[in-house]
Amino acid sequence: MSGDSELAELRRRRLQQIQQQQAAQSPEAMSAAYAQQQAEHDRRDAERSEALRRILTPEARERLGRIRLAKPDVAQAVEQQVLSLAASGRLQRAIDDTTLRAILERVMPERRDITITRR
Is residue 9 in a domain? Predict the structure, then answer.
């Protein structure tokens, strides 16, 4: 568990550093509430990506990154499903590329084939 405490300490320091940088850049333009919201958002994003890094294999992370570029909403849904599986304890091992593709097939909306007939 010392690794978790070290990670939490690093995150806390990084969060302070980000807050100080934002405050130094434009203190009059950025309100304290906005800075706090942004820092909280950054912290949640860092925790989310750290959890995904531990759960997904490198190949699966790469695939999810490509999907995020093309369809951010689908990538968000897959990330949410993977994180909820991990939180509920239903994952026994890291999710590999094959398993991620199976999850994607369930999450992705069905494609409609459009045919145009000319008269």
Answer: yes
97 close to 59: Cβ distance less than 8 angstroms = yes
Residue 56: phi and psi, rounded to 5, are -100, 145
What distance in Å separates the CA atoms of residue 33 and residue 73, rounded to the nearest whole number? Answer: 28
From CA 99, how far away is CA 76, in angstroms rounded?
17
Q: For 97-111, what is the mean pLDDT?
A: 84
Which residue matches tokens 């992370």? 61
Q: Give tens-digit pLDDT for 4-22.
A: 778 788 888 888 888 887 7
Q: Which residue has the tokens 């939180």?
A: 87
Q: How many domains does the chain have?
A: 2
Q: Is residue 114 part of a domain?
A: no
* Integer Cα distance of 55 and 27 in angstroms: 38
Q: What is the rounded distance in angstroms from the CA atom of residue 21 to the CA atom of residue 26?
A: 9
Same domain flag for 40 and 75: no
> The domain containing residue 20 runs over which residues?
1-55
Other CB atoms within 10 Å distance of the CB of residue 118: 3
Question: What is the model's pTM?
Answer: 0.59
